[in-house]
Amino acid sequence: QVKRSGKNAFRFFDPELNSRHRDRIALENDLRSAIARNELELHYQPQVSFSKRSIVGLEALLRWNHPSLGAVPPGTFVQVAEEVGLIGEISAWVLERACNQISEWQRNGVEPPRMSINLSAHDFLRTDIVDAITACLDRHEVAPAALEIEITESIMMNDTAGVASKVRGLRSAGLSVAIDDFGTGYSALAYLQKFPVSTLKIDRSFVRDLEGPMTNPIISAITGIARGFELDLVAEGVENIEQADALRTLGCDVMQGYLFARPAPAAAAEAWLRSPELLFAQPH
Ligand code: C2E
Ligand code: MG
Ligand code: MG
Ligand code: MG
């Protein structure tokens, strides 16, 4: 098979590329039917107060249980879903599932802490995104304060879609809004004024560097910003006790990471909610 390509015309089609292309098309097709086949699942990872030894939040993280590929991580399919226009349907499923889980826990007498879901920049192109979210909360009789929407900094870079007013809409409806992976994108401080978010999540790349001496200009700067703007702060990717101690010293008490728990299905999350001490039981 030959293919015309600009520079070296009539280059032979790269068989490896060809098979990757086929994989990608197969993935797209499978993804289209993943919701209908009930292959999506939410896992939950706790956010803990290190000093209080309590759970202050849960982040819902999407999992795709593919019939032949097994567990496909969101890193491989969320971007595909965005590119082929499936993300809206997936985000709607995530929102629905999260609200349903919150109300189920409430009915079972487990008072869940605030739950966070991740939305994509594409979701904020929808003019009715705020209404869709509040309608879902209403349907499940879940208080808006029980839900936090995580968005990335990239969403704030241009505001042609009126993202700032949508963030304001979510906040005035009573939801929390977090900036995920804070510090890794293009974050001008002015944005924090224009986008009235409630939470900053320190990206795990900064937490990873927190070994040894307990000074760290980036973490210190971010904790300063959070204090100045009166925002909640969560450190992501906390894997060991040295990092947790350093974060405490630097002024960040709320942490999420493998040190406490890996993301896990609802049943495991419910066990943590009933017995938070499980998360602090590991030998330090
Ligand atoms: P994120 O929102 O920043 O989520 C945190 C990621 O870090 C998760 O990966 C989590 O499993 C992982 N993580 C947590 N603690 C640790 C740790 O201590 N060490 C390490 N090495 N990793 C840790 P995951 O679940 O694979 O998700 C990856 C990304 O996919 C998420 O990053 C988020 O951007 C996206 N994503 C996940 N669920 C959804 C969803 O429902 N919708 C959308 N649009 N994106 C999602
Ligand atoms: Mg997140
Ligand atoms: Mg993150
Ligand atoms: Mg991340």
The N- to C-terminal Cα distance equals 59 Å
- How can the largest sheet be summarized? 9 strands, mixed
Q: Enumerate how many helices there are, as a single number.
A: 10
Secondary-structure element pattern, one letter each: EEHEEEHHEHEHEHEHHEHEH
What small-molecule ligands were found? ligand C2E, magnesium ion
Mean pLDDT: 91
Rg: 21 Å
Helix content estimate: 40-55%
Q: Would you count the extended β strands for me?
A: 11
- Beta-strand percentage range: 15-25%
* Helix/sheet category: alpha/beta
- Low-confidence stretches are none
Shape call: globular
Spell out the key features of this protein.
11 strands; binds ligand C2E; 284 residues; 9-stranded mixed beta sheet; EAL domain-containing protein; 10 helices; binds magnesium ion; alpha/beta
Describe this structure in words.
It contains ten helices and eleven strands. 40% of the residues lie in helices and 20% in strands. It has helices at 15-34, 74-83, 87-107, 129-139, 163-172, 189-194, 204-208, 217-228, 241-250, 266-274, and strands at residues 2-3, 11-12, 40-49, 54-66, 70-72, 114-118, 147-152, 176-182, 199-202, 232-235, 254-255. The structure holds ligand C2E and magnesium ion (3 copies). The site of one magnesium ion has 2 residues, from loops.
Draw up the topology in text.
Blueprint: E1 2-3, E2 11-12, H1 15-34, E3 40-49, E4 54-66, E5 70-72, H2 74-83, H3 87-107, E6 114-118, H4 129-139, E7 147-152, H5 163-172, E8 176-182, H6 189-194, E9 199-202, H7 204-208, H8 217-228, E10 232-235, H9 241-250, E11 254-255, H10 266-274
Helix pairs in contact: 3-4, 4-5
The structure holds ligand C2E and magnesium ion (3 copies).
